[in-house]
Amino acid sequence: MLDRRIFEGVRVLDLTRVMSGPFCTAMMADLGAEIIKIELPGSGEEGRFFAPHVAGESTYFAMLNRGKKSVTVNMKSPDGIALIRDIAKTADVLVENFRPGVMERLGLGHAALQAQNSRLIYASISGFGQEGPYRDWPAFDLVVQAMSGLMHITGERDGRPTAVGESLADVTTGMFAAFGVASALYDREKTGTGRRVEVAMLDSLFSMLITALSRKLYTDKPVRRVGNRHPETYPVDSFATRDGDIVIVGFTDGLYRKICTVIGRPDLSADPRLATNIGRNAHEEELRSAIAQWAAGLGRDEAVAALRREDVTAAPVWSFEELLDSGHVEARGLVREGVNTKLGTIPLVGQPVRFHGAPGPDGPQRSPMVGEHTDEVLADILCLTSERIAALRAARAI
After folding, report:
1. 152 is catalytic
2. DSSP string, 340-369
3. pLDDT at 2
4. Whole-number pLDDT of residue 4
5. Which InterPro entries did the record assign (predicted)?
6. Cα dihedral 222, 223, 229, 233 in deg (nearest 10)
């Protein structure tokens, strides 16, 4: 059993807002890092205005900022910028997701801060990167889904391009940023020196489109929308039953033959036209019709049970309520207890990687109120007196 959490002793100066950056630093907070989140005095960061709200508190913000310390600093004030520079001297990691060039204009760029702290790992998250033709474009998740090609390949075959029903570009970028920071921390153990880490939302989402890229970069086949079926393999698709949808994954010849047995069509299994995936793709309509006819006569759970009896990979299409009621989320400990001053005990969903033998969080993680830890951090980390803190507050620097 380890006696410390993975990132215990790592201090992160968090200058991020909305989702991709906060998701990155939340993953680090889950593993024991001290996250000092800088927010605007009074209003806090933009994510606090995102719905849904309960008792005036954004539950979106609460989920993304678990386990962090909120410090309010006026970044338009020279004294405020000086405070951030002083905290950066003590930090192991800085994460920011301002538009390229903003941090340099504030005097908080990589070169300036690494000059005062050579061990600092400086992570920059942006929509399109620190250079390139779209460097200065504003980016939100929908913009990146649209430009990455993901929307173009998502949706029904004859329908309009469709966004994925979650902020996938933000989340994947946050994960890649956390991976980059962890890699840089490992590298620092060998070199003693920090480095800059740069992650762009478009790059992150583009790099995950493996099936589409393997088709586009290596063949002359068009990349297009195919609904719920796999673009290269059949039968991998969804089907309607009497009371809901199911998915079936028949990606090998053996699984295909088992599907034919389950649906009572041994003739399809013996048909030489369908013996290979190439043939099954060529005769997709015939296969889809046969499986759809079988599924339509059964209940959803009945159809899945029949397929699983033959060890065919299949599953029901669940709602969130069905997943939460399934017992799996509870068994895996995916939702845990947190705390907020206004909301009291709240549910939080942390990063899913398990480190066997490492301790988990010490009690419920806290979702902070705006500026809740300002005095504590300035006193403990910068050793400022209560009189100096009061003077900074009077000058509206904090």
Report:
1. no
2. ETTTEEEEEE------TTS---SSPEE-PP
3. 60
4. 81
5. CoA-transferase_III_domain, CoA-Trfase_fam_III, CoA-Trfase_III_dom3_sf, CoA-Trfase_III_dom_1_sf
6. 60
The answer to whether the beta carbons of residues 382 and 83 sit under 8 Å apart is yes
How far apart are the C-alpha atoms of 173 and 145, rounded to whole Å? 12
Answer whether the bond into residue 359 is a cis peptide, omega within 30°: no
What are the 10-residue block averages of pLDDT along the chain, 398 residues in total?
A: 83 97 97 97 94 95 97 97 98 97 97 97 97 94 97 95 96 98 98 98 97 94 93 96 98 96 96 96 96 98 98 97 96 94 94 87 89 97 97 96
Report residue 118 CA to chain centroid gap: 29
Cβ-Cβ contacts under 8 Å for 180 (sequence gap 6 or more)? 123, 197, 199
Residue pair 124/199 in contact by the 8 Å Cβ criterion: yes
Burial of 220 (0-12, 13-18, 19+ CB in 10 A): exposed
R_g of the chain, CA atoms, integer Å: 26
Query: In which element (H, E) is residue 22 found?
Result: helix 20-30
Residue 159, helix vs strand vs coil: coil
> What CATH number is given for 11-208+331-394 in this structure?
3.40.50.10540
Phi, then psi, of 151 in degrees rounded to 5: -65, -35
Instruction: Please tell me the distance from the alpha carbon of residue 229 to that of residue 151, in angstroms, as a whole number.
Output: 16
Buried residues in 92-113 as b, exposed as e (16+ CB within 10 A) = bbbbbbbebeebeebebbbeeb
Answer whether 164's CB lies under 8 Å from 154's CB.
yes
Task: For tokens 């009572």, name the residue.
Answer: 264
Half-sphere exposure of 122 (CA within 13 A, CB side): 22
Domain residue spans of the chain? 11-208+331-394, 236-317
* Polymer length in residues for the chain: 398
CATH: 3.30.365.10, 1.10.3720.10, 3.30.1540.10, 2.30.30.280. Which one for 236-317? 3.30.1540.10
